[in-house]
Design brief:
CATH superfamily of the largest domain: Medium-chain alcohol dehydrogenases, catalytic domain
Number of strands: 14
CATH class of the largest domain: Alpha Beta
Helix content: 25-40%
Shape: globular
Strand content: 25-35%
Bound molecules: NADP nicotinamide-adenine-dinucleotide phosphate
CATH topology of the largest domain: Quinone Oxidoreductase, Chain A, domain 1
Largest sheet: 7 strands, mixed
Amino acid sequence: MKAVICTQYGPPEVLQIKEVKKPNPKDNEVLIKVYATTAHIGDTRIRRFDPFLVRLMFGLFKPKKNLILGLEISGVIESVGKNVKSFKKDDKVFALTGFGLGGYAEYKCLPEKVNEGTQQRKGLVALKPENLSYEEAATIPAGGLTALKNLQKANIRDGQKILINGASGSLGTYAIQLAKYYGSEVTAVCSSKNIELVKSIGADKVIDYTEEDFTKTDDKYDIVYDAVMKSKHAHCRRLLKKNGVFVNNSRLPKIEEEDLLFLRDLIERNKLKPILDRTYSIDDIVEAHRYVDNGHKKGNVAITVYEQ
Ligand SMILES: NC(=O)c1ccc[n+]([C@@H]2O[C@H](COP(=O)([O-])OP(=O)(O)OC[C@H]3O[C@@H](n4cnc5c(N)ncnc54)[C@H](OP(=O)(O)O)[C@@H]3O)[C@@H](O)[C@H]2O)c1
């Protein structure tokens, strides 16, 4: 099968399309024909070798042989192992591949179910939201789940005030919509060019970071979510109400199958939609990573693997 191999750590050009062996599902696995994946910031960070720990997981001096990036996928079940009960051939699915990665390929095997707490490593599969394209659906599993779990960690509730920094990025655009779903008043921090976007998905107030330093505002918040990791708790402390909470993405949240199903339900009820900035063909993966490396995408960048 065709796959994108991360041949070294470095610039986007280290990604090379090669032929590798098509995987076979084990008894407890499904084989997914990948229709779409994403240029997720996590993929670009592994490729760039950032942070240092990445080397420990994926190869100390160079990536392990035939390392295939791709944290998120959407596609169709091609076959199932003999013990698989919850999926069948031709089911349309979306999935987190986890740190087994492997989304930048024509096929990916994932376990039907994984043991509690191991999802980050082993992935998660669910039926795809019916009202999304494969490209849109592929952008949900990592970004959507991370934003959801961080807001839940902050114990978001009806009637709260939340400030979201980095509101125009992948996590930010999910966080705005989820915070509105939970009944919060949202102040979004973004640049001038993204003000209309963040308002269109529910932001009540906007701070333009090119005009104003949000940490100097006199308003107080129940939650400050630094979705883009450009600030620090110490700088945001004065924005927090008594018992207010600061969250960022410094710890990977523990995720469960029910979280992905919850997001699917919100999407199918039109309470949540992924923002898709651009879509590239898998043949243009280098260009896609170069675009994400710039740090100015709006929402998400999808990759078409199989053109329907
Ligand atoms: N996405 C995930 O699932 C995930 C999971 C775990 C951790 N993380 C980490 O969380 C961070 C954000 O991830 P992401 O995927 O949301 O990033 P992203 O989509 O690449 O963020 C880009 C967005 O951030 C905005 N931005 C850049 N500098 C800003 C600043 N100083 N203030 C406010 N907004 C700014 C950009 O808007 P402008 O063009 O206007 O500057 C752009 O829209 C990264 O450090 C990532 O490694 C992400």
